[in-house]
Amino acid sequence: MKYLQLLLASFLGLLASVSQAAIDVTAATGVISGDGTTAITAVGTALITLAGTVLVFKWVKASFF
After folding, report:
1. Is the torsion defined by CA of 45, 51, 56, 60 positive or negative?
2. Residue pLDDT, tens place only, 24-37
3. 49 secondary structure, DSSP code
4. What whole-number distance in Å separates Cα of residue 20 and Cα of residue 36?
């Protein structure tokens, strides 16, 4: 039981010291803002193209029937 208490105290001490560390997120933020914009633009373009294709298909179908 004493070893478990020692292990728990060591873990909590380590956890407390790690939680106070400063986290540098500048690299991740740069990647997300650069690649994120490209990805969102690609998805948006694909959805607009799909919507246009659907509208043209409906127009062609309506003109035949």
Report:
1. positive
2. 677 777 776 766 77
3. H
4. 29
Quickly state the pLDDT bin for 40 (edges 50, 70, 90).
Answer: confident
Q: What is the mean pLDDT of residues 34-55?
A: 87
Question: Which residue carries 């010291």 as its tokens?
Answer: 17
The pTM (predicted TM-score) of the whole model is 0.46
CB burial of residue 2 (10 Å; 0-12, 13-18, 19+): exposed
Across the chain, how many H-helices and E-strands are there? Answer: 2, 0
